[in-house]
Amino acid sequence: MTEKIKLAILDMNDAEPNQGLRCIEEIVQKFQSEIEYKIYDVRAKNEIPNSSYDIYISSGGPGSPLEDEAWRQPYLNLMQELWDFNKSSTHQKKYVFFICYSFQVICDYFQLGDVKPRRSTSFGILRVHKTKKGHNDLILKELNDPFYAVDSRDWQLVQPKLTVFKKHGAEILSLEKIRTHVELERAIMAVRFSDEFVGTQFHPEAEPVSMEAFFKLEENKKIVVESFGEEKYDQMMDRVDDPDKLFMTYNTIIPRFIQNAITQIKQPLMSD
């Protein structure tokens, strides 16, 4: 029997209840014939995996991505170790996917632009526009343009430092919706840091069926309506079960990332 590929899920939710972690697990479990995985509670318990895993998925989470807590340096040390490993390894590589909070943390670490608070929370199932690079990128090319994704954030990456992008070989894959009525910068919504490192500002793990059930509960509906208004709630519920919107994003981005990683990891093993 061939050894399974090892995957680490990095829980960045700081012990706050959330839907995202369960959704990530469900996606990973679809590859259980080839993958074994373990969850690490990074922020609440300071659990940091070592660099022996093949694939890492780092979740979203609440709060400031700039906070200097006990977990931060060990987490960044791990990411630097994986990055350096990929630079020096000629065939075997490490694959990392960053979601929302994790995306903001790593973009700040690489100094790709300004990570700063939004004027107001962005929340809902919103349009995301591809860049030219995004049209041909592995994780986005099967999606419509614009495509739809769950957005839930108080922070954002803006003012990209293009010289730093160029130095790292990083590429902007998508931007937030075009807002002609406001003079605000469009946040960067996805970045490919390298062939192996990629991240999104939105939540590609959001699973439509459970999301719809969650927001139909009266107490959750009340929170959305009180925070964002009835119109935003109705728009979100209208989009949640559209097969061309959230279903496509859920079934495409992280599954394609994992499948590509599996394929690339297996190739050197088969040639040895």
Explain what this protein looks like in three dimensions.
- It is a single chain.
- This protein has one domain: Rossmann fold.
- The protein is about 40% helix and about 25% strand.
- It has ten helices and nine strands.
- Strand 3 (about 55-60), helix 3 (about 70-90) and strand 4 (about 95-100) form a beta-alpha-beta unit.
- By secondary structure, it is of the alpha/beta class.
- The chain has helices at about 20-30, 40-45, 70-90, 100-110, 130-135, 160-170, 210-215, 220-230, 230-240, 245-270; strands at about 5-10, 35-40, 55-60, 95-100, 115-130, 145-160, 170-175, 190, 195-200.
- A nine-stranded mixed β-sheet has the order 2-1-3-4-9-8-7-5-6, with helices on both faces.
Q: What fraction, in percent, of the residue positions are helical?
A: 25-40%
Kindly report the CATH topology. Answer: Rossmann fold
Listing every helix as H and every strand as E from the N terminus to the C terminus, the arrangement reads EHEHEHEHEHEHEEEHHHH
Write down how many β-strands occur, each being a DSSP E stretch of 2 or more residues.
9
Low-confidence stretches: none
What would the principal axes of the Cα set say about the shape?
globular
Q: What share of residues are in beta strands?
A: 15-25%
Q: How would a crystallographer describe the biggest sheet?
A: 9 strands, mixed
Taking strands numbered 1, 2, ... along the chain, how are they ordered across the largest sheet? 2-1-3-4-9-8-7-5-6
Tell me the number of structural domains: 1
